Amino acid sequence: MAGAVVIPTYQEADNIVELLRAVRRHAPELTVMVVDDNSPDGTGQLAEEVARELGGVEVIHRASKEGLGAAYRHGFRHALDGGHDPVLQMDADFSHDPAVLPHLLAAIEQGAEVAVGSRYVPGGSVPSWTWLRRQLSRWGNSYARRMLRLSMRDATTAFRAYRADVLERIDIDGTRANGYLFQIETAFRVSVDGARVEEHPITFVDRVAGASKMAVVRTMVETELRVTWWGLSLRAPALSERVRRTAPGRYVMSRIHPS
Question: Which of 60, 92, 223, 235 is the most buried (most CB within 10 A)?
Fold first, then answer.
């Protein structure tokens, strides 16, 4: 069975048609799985129309917006249950260039278990970002890499390819993060698993059409707090377990992993 690429969408009507055509053009062997969280702008319906035109596109309609992590878990499980290998992921806003897909596939074919489209290896770049945003992102990735002993330099990128058995080994269904932290959680699980990771340089560009759905500062603060907690749990499990049993600890865990 050929591979599949999972693309979560919410309010991406301005991008989805051209994106699907570009993905089919650059990686015609991949099944494209659009996971739409009931976008009120009709993204899911547009994807259905393009699917009928192009073939090789599946549209998964979810009842409501439950977060990026939830959409990825749904899409990954759908791809795995369908026997697809490898399983890729990318954003829907053209910040990830579909022309890079063959490079990620080639890395998997040559022995990598996880191929990462990385901004932070030689050749990678984020030309449209301000100096401050670039430094904040680099610092955040560096901090996560040190705290969690990660095996990749770009832990927050959503442009990746996985061997199917890696997603099963890291228990992708058991991941809990439900926003942009999902990428760090999966990077952490991949690192603990010891999977062979290869990073391919990419040029990341901000979306041209549509509106960003990420509050940058709030997201970074929340991410660093959670990474700090995970890092402390990794280094001092006995201490973190005692903290979990206290009232403040239970509150923190309810915020990090709401039921």
Answer: 92
Q: Is the pLDDT of residue 119 over 50?
A: yes
Mean pLDDT for all residues in the chain: 87
Tokens of 205: 């560009």
What's the pLDDT at 259?
Answer: 38
Residue holding tokens 């040029």? 203
Q: Which residues contact 236 (CB under 8 A, 6 or more apart)?
A: none
Residues 6+ apart with CB under 8 A from 211: 11
**Which helix (DSSP H) or strand (DSSP E) does residue 87 occupy?**
strand 87-89
User: What is the DSSP pairing of strand 4-9 with strand 160-162?
Assistant: unpaired
**What is the value of pTM for the model shown?**
0.85
CA distance 57 to 31: 6
List alpha helices for 149-215, DSSP H: 164-169, 181-193
Closest among 63, 68, 61, 70 to 92, alpha carbons compared: 68
Render the burial of 209-243: b for 16+ CB within 10 Å, e for the rest: ebeeeeeeeeebebbbebbebbbeeeeeeeebeeb
Q: Do 205 and 100 form a contact (C-beta atoms < 8 A)?
A: no
